[in-house]
């Protein structure tokens, strides 16, 4: 009989900390390795004796915390998502279209006559040469996900009513009271366009609550995208033609200025062509010098004959003096004072004529370039090639009533396991 009294005394002397540990569920209690063996021995050796009554559970009759967390974090959300996707979520229909932005140009139009006469090969060379326009494709996809396409489509189609139907579920439909910025986010979730980098093909997918609405909206998007491509093509053509035309006008103005300067020089100098004038003056001076030499020879012969007093000698001498005066005048015209010499006029005329020739060549070159660019711009154009048109869907693809709840369940289990590990780590540090 004294033995139970001793055991009760020993039990009363146990620290209160160990009793406090039993407040937490047993699943979350952790002991240090050095304390487990001694604690187990103490529990076995100093087990209190109850008078025929069942011992109380360590958790006070409450379910474990992990089980409660699993129910609230995993089971209930999974059941809620299953009910929503099975009975509440509205059907959504997807209309798909595929197209590409192409550039077309004429090939072989400026070839030689020999290439034109090469039979069927020449005919094939003049066929349309198509290439992928990847940069323009990125422009189209960016346009589809922008507010600009909403403005254009809104003029001919009430696209908002397609997403605000009352028969659609409250989580999926768009609320009409929301702003345009919020609708753009909603639009990008239901209208997608992406590019295949290797082929440049654009895939458009439109998702609405009615099959006919998906097809109408997809057709409207394709029409506006085609208009945008046409605008880009016309704008690019006009820009390059305008640039070349400005170059032609600039070179033409320069050429006209050189012609005006040359005309003013001719009027001021009284010389139509100083080069021709110098050539004719040089020819005339050469003739005068030849005649002067002839008269000097005759006068020399007459002086040798002592005929200075003859009338013929006097006449020849007067003629020679007249020739000398004419020769001096011609020389003064060619190489006289700086402001009146033909040589100076010839230098100025040469400079103006050189400027005129250069300006003329530049004008002709720019005119040829303009004509070539204009012809090439008229041949080349961008267009939208739709090879998969949107078709009315027969079955709804969204929502995925089976796979989506399973994915949610997997995510919830991972979240719950992560939180359990974090809680267990915190309890280890407390002990």
From TrEMBL:
GO (cellular component) term, any one: plasma membrane
Gene Ontology molecular function terms on file: protein tyrosine kinase activity
UniProt xrefs under InterPro entries: Bact_polysacc_biosynth/exp
Keyword set, alphabetical order: Membrane, Transmembrane, Transmembrane helix
Coiled coil regions in record: none
Bilayer-crossing regions: 67-87, 406-426
The protein's name: Putative KpsE/CtrB/VexD-like capsular polysaccharide export protein
Taxonomic source organism: Rhizobium freirei PRF 81
């Amino acid at each position: 009989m004294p033995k139970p009294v001793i055991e009760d005394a020993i039990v009363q002397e146990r620290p209160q900390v160990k009793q406090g540990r039993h407040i937490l569920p047993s699943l979350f209690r952790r002991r240090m390795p050095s304390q487990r063996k001694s604690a187990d021995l103490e529990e076995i050796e100093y087990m209190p004796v109850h008078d025929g009554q069942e011992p109380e559970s360590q958790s006070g009759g409450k379910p474990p915390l992990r089980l409660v967390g699993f129910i609230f974090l995993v089971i209930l959300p999974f059941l809620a998502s299953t009910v929503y996707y099975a009975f509440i979520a509205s059907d959504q229909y997807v209309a798909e279209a595929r197209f590409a932005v192409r550039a077309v140009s004429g090939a072989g139009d400026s070839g030689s006559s020999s290439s034109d006469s090469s039979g069927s090969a020449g005919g094939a060379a003049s066929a349309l040469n198509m290439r992928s326009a990847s940069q323009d494709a990125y422009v189209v996809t960016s346009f589809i996900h922008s507010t600009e396409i909403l403005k254009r489509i809104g003029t001919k189609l009430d696209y908002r009513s397609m997403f605000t139907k009352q028969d659609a579920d409250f989580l999926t439909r768009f609320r009409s009271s929301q702003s345009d910025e919020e609708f753009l986010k909603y639009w990008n979730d239901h209208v997608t366009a992406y590019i295949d980098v290797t082929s440049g093909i654009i895939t458009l997918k439109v998702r609405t609550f009615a099959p006919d609405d998906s097809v109408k909206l997809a057709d409207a998007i394709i029409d506006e995208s085609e208009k945008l491509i046409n605008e880009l093509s016309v704008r690019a053509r006009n820009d390059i033609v305008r640039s070349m035309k400005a170059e032609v006008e600039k070179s033409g103005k320069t050429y006209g200025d050189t012609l005006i300067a040359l005309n003013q020089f001719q009027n001021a100098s009284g010389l139509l062509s100083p080069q021709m004038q110098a050539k004719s003056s040089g020819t005339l001076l050469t003739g005068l010098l030849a005649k002067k030499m002839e008269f000097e020879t005759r006068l020399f012969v007459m002086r040798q004959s002592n005929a200075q007093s003859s009338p013929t000698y006097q006449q020849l001498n007067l003629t020679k003096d007249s020739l000398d005066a004419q020769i001096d005048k011609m020389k003064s015209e060619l190489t006289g004072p700086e402001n009146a010499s033909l040589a100076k006029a010839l230098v100025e005329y040469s400079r103006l004529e050189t400027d005129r020739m250069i300006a003329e060549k530049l004008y002709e070159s720019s005119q040829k370039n303009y004509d070539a660019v204009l012809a090439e711009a008229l041949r080349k154009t961008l267009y939208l090639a739709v090879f998969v048109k949107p078709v009315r869907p027969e079955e709804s693809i969204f929502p995925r009533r089976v796979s989506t709840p399973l994915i949610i369940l997997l995510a919830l289990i991972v979240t719950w396991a992560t939180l359990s590990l974090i809680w267990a780590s915190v309890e280890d540090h407390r002990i």
